[in-house]
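Dissemination and training. As part of the outreach component of the grant, students in the summer workshop were shown how a complex can be specified as a set of sequence lines and then modelled as a single object. The example used during the hands-on session is reproduced here so that future cohorts can follow it. Participants entered these lines:
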Amino acid sequence: DIQMTQSPSSLSASVGDRVTITCRTSQSIGSYLNWYQQKPGKAPKLLIYVASTLQSGVPSRFSGSGSGTDFTLTISSLQSEDFATYYCQQSYSSPVFGQGTRLEVK
Amino acid sequence: QVQLVQSGAEVKKPGASVKVSCKASGYTFSGFYMHWVRQAPGQGLEWMGRINPNSGATNYAQKFQGRVIMTSDTSITTAYMELRRLRSDDTAVYYCARSPPDGSGSILDSWGQGTLVSVSS
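and obtained this result:
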């Protein structure tokens, strides 16, 4: 199975900050990497798919990059509604999720 | 709009089975895979498997092989996930989520609201 390493596990930031979350896979997956946002008590929401494509309706402050084994999710200017947990997920083979990054208010 | 509406919370005893349903609307049910993902309290997301409602073909995560059965009924656009021989560590919120057909991988673009399954003696 492909292993996912997501970092950091938690992150404190302020509104307006630029935030970057990293996901690394144990083998090359091309661009088969997706990002989700989850708020407490809610289902995950797809943000970005195939590494860099923004899901319809997702604000443009979210962006994704990377290929192979190293990927990043960037929020260019953090808004209050962005405080949540973020997961990466590889879709190269049977889906596997990263451990999650909890983004908290500093 | 796409909607996935799941059945309500369940409380089960160890050793029992649970069957969770996921009613789909707003799209062509047979044209998308349906996945099941679970989340234990305070933990991350764990993929359990998927079904192709068009063919009935399933793929299960190795961890759940022999204990999970995923089915679908295209006449009522509903997918089901049955988990047998429940243990206390099966306590979790169970989500259904759809993905487009293979080609771009399992992109889970719409999710149900989740069903809490509690397993306790």
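Chain A touches chain B through 23 residues (CB under 8 Å). Students were then asked to discuss how this feature might be tested experimentally.
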